[in-house]
Amino acid sequence: MDRWEHFLVIARDLGGILQFMGFASSAPLLITWYFREWDVLVAMAVVPIIFFLTGSLLRNAPPSNKQARLSVSLSSVAVVWLFASLIGALPFYFGTGMPYLDCVFEAMSGWTTTGLTMITGLDDLPKTLLFWRSFMQWMGGIGIVAFTIAMVNRSGLVQRGMYRSEARSESFLPSVVDTGIFMWKIYIVLTLAGIGLVLISGVGPWDALNLGLVAIATGGFTMYDAGIAQYDNYLMELLLIPIMIAGALPFKIYFSLYSKKIFTFFRERQAALLLAIIGCGLLFITLDLIYQSGLAASDAIRYGLFMTVSAATTTGFQNTNPALWPSATILFLSALMVIGGAAGSTAGGLKLERVVICYEGLIWWFRRIFISGRAIIPFRHDGRSIPKMVAEYEVSKNMLIIVLYFIIIFFSTICILLFEGPGYDTSHVIFDVITAACNNGISTGHVSADMSAISKIFFILLMWIGRLEVIPVIVLVMGLLKGFDRA
Hints:
Blueprint: H1 3-24, H2 28-35, H3 41-59, H4 70-88, H5 90-96, H6 100-111, H7 127-142, H8 144-148, H9 157-164, H10 176-200, H11 205-216, H12 234-248, H13 251-258, H14 262-267, H15 269-291, H16 297-312, H17 327-339, H18 352-370, E1 379-381, E2 384-386, H19 388-420, H20 426-437, H21 453-467, H22 471-482
Antiparallel strand pairs: 1-2
Helix pairs in contact: 1-3, 1-4, 2-7, 3-5, 4-6, 4-9, 4-22, 5-6, 6-7, 6-21, 7-11, 10-11, 10-12, 11-12, 12-16, 15-16, 15-17, 16-17, 17-20, 18-19, 19-20, 19-21
């Protein structure tokens, strides 16, 4: 098939996704009406109109009975995320007068649930635009495709390929569509529960709504320049912790609880590993803040607990400035961000499942080296024996993604340091590159509107690549360079 035939196969699916995004992105218009912010009405209305018109155009493409290759499915989702960011930037461009590149950065940070921002003066920003930032993170948290998978027209490879491109390979129901619908229901219930928890802390309904949306999405956008520190509310910080953890846990856990398989929760290794990492992080960072920074034990525990959970779940909330911390503490926080949350969650990073598989793979390989070649050493994962060919493929694939992550982080750091010139703390630049690639959002302050245009583009690409876990973007680039027939 030539490129046009490949496009026709996927066009109607993409049209359905964009139509749904057009419908969903009209939600901020309710905020415009409620707060009577008519000056940003046109700026906000442009987004659902473009999404819906583009989607309708694609839905009217000639039908195709052929099956698209996996490469087409993967690359198409990468295009959707990029297109969503280019269009999602328009309200900021028309509503604030920011440079369009800064607006694309803000939108990409929103859709990818990263939480880095180019905006200064959030306190005075129209509430419609504040809600749009939160809503993008909420939509992006569960994944544009995973969130709308039930709305697309086709089934089989295209659907499953799109689903896989957002690192959501597990299906706890017979079909991907059923899984997508149930994830949708879970997400809404968790969101409402999160908003209710924040309300308990005494925060007003408006702030609770926005914080609930971004916390369950492990996003990190806030409504104030000072971030979470603006509230100075210890109870609210404590109540945000279970919401962030809930967003970073695999959604199949909630399906198990719904199916009354309560003990499955306690057997879920990703959940246990996440809690263990948070416990170790709390201990290390708290002690470091006490003995290295001289903080009082109460403050060290407060900052250590909240920032550890925020980093481990890749949420990006900050109740303090990590730039003031010792270098060892920042490095440890970086390690938490790189690992990230569970596969099949709203979190970013390498994912706990991938780390577990690679660890098991290394142990398996070393056992095979030191034991007689005649012995058959099974690879066991989740209590099951995996065939050798499948195990080698899965371990190699996950190792490859980890290696690509670090190569991208290394290369991007060097380039940004070259573009920005002297005067920047190298450790802070590395930290912010990691936070972008792992869709975290905790920042030491390097990321700002004062960066060069080239650096901003690098960070936009890092957030995009990190959210899709490298492979779909590589497939897209290869498809554009060589054509899908050879992809």
